[in-house]
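[Q] Does anyone have a clean structure-token version of this?
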Amino acid sequence: MTRKLRGKTTSQAVYTAREQRRTPTRAEEILWNALRRRRLGGLKFRRQHPFEPYILDMFCVEHQLEIEAAGEIHRDLSQKEHDEIRAAYLEANGIRVLRFSNQMIENNLAQVLEHIRRATHSPSPLATSLRTWLEERGLGGEV
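[A] Here you go.
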């Protein structure tokens, strides 16, 4: 039996989040692999986390920070308006939003991670495991 609500989140949002976890974009996959397992300064992130009517791409509960990977659709005018409403809603609920383009994530991951680290004031340097992971994928080991 399916629950109708999960906190203030609907069961449909939970289902959608699960589906999005199964089919990440390339940028989401790159970013998630850099953030998962506390690889960024010991910060714990959740992926595709349902929050009321929205689904947060990567969410750090401790810092109430959402990291969003923004694809080409976010350049569309109507999508930009939706993004502004969404960001205002999340910020009104105490959640800060950092949005990075897919291109930025794919081409400048170290810079994206440093920006996230600064936003959370987590200690630097990054964990050795993250640096190794970046080097193995040719994404640069300097963070």
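[Q] Thanks! Anything notable?
[A] The longest helix spans residues 77-92.
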